[in-house]
Design brief:
eight-stranded parallel barrel, alpha/beta, 11 helices
């Protein structure tokens, strides 16, 4: 079922708001993604409360640090009842292997962040990177494969390339936009286009949460039929 492919990005800071949102759409989603806007303002107890919605929780902390700090950060997630956590692939192979080893001990699946979907070629050039976004993503995916991570966070535009290189890596794709409005996203596709490209899971925030969440997600699900 297509609703088993959607993680809603709960980009809110209020516990009351996130519970209200999830109560409206819990039957239409596969999982719950909580990002920095939420996790920096909520307690471990409040994060655990989200387990009552009976959906896997995806902790999008995007950890990026030296190996020891990265590993200790992963260990600290044990008490949160989460299923997935994100780390930047720029951490490098050695640190990622160590982090993944710890994550497996506490039954957390690590997802590697490649290049944010808000970045285009010119943004990478301005930071001193050589080559195009696709070139950088390719290098990082090779690291994710070597580190034996569960999956990667990538734009839907890179999914086909990733699957050809590492078919066992699960592709979680943000950058899902149904119309012409991209907001701050630059590398986007519609939900149907992303799934057709081979995305395993869609990460959708504002197209669901802005306005009428129930109506919005039903419209997205209808587009997938």
């Amino acid at each position: 079922m297509t609703n088993k492919k959607i993680f809603v990005a709960c980009d809110v800071s209020s516990q009351k708001k996130i519970k209200k949102l999830l109560s409206l759409i819990q039957n239409d989603i596969s999982g719950i993604k909580i990002g920095l806007q939420y996790i920096t303002q909520r307690s471990p107890k409040e994060i655990r409360e989200l387990s009552k919605f009976k959906k896997p929780i995806f902790y999008d902390g995007k950890f990026f640090d030296i190996k020891n700090t990265l590993v200790e950060s992963i260990k600290s997630l044990k008490k949160l009842n989460i299923s997935y956590a994100t780390v930047h692939l720029l951490n490098g192979l050695d640190a990622l292997k160590a982090a993944n080893k710890e994550a497996k001990k506490i039954n957390i699946k690590l997802l590697g962040v490649s290049i944010l979907t808000s970045f285009a070629d010119k943004d990478l050039i301005s930071l001193g990177f050589k080559g195009k976004v696709q070139d950088q993503v390719l290098r990082l995916i090779k690291i994710a494969k070597q580190a034996n991570l569960h999956g990667v966070i990538c734009s839907p535009l890179e999914v086909k390339m990733i699957k050809s290189l590492a078919p066992n890596l699960k592709c979680f794709t943000p950058g899902i936009r149904q119309g012409g409005t991209k907001n701050d996203q630059k590398r986007t596709l519609t939900a149907k286009e992303a799934l057709d490209a081979g995305s395993d899971y869609l990460i959708i925030g504002r197209p669901i949460t802005k306005g009428n969440p129930k109506k919005n997600i039903k419209k997205i699900l209808s587009s997938l039929k």
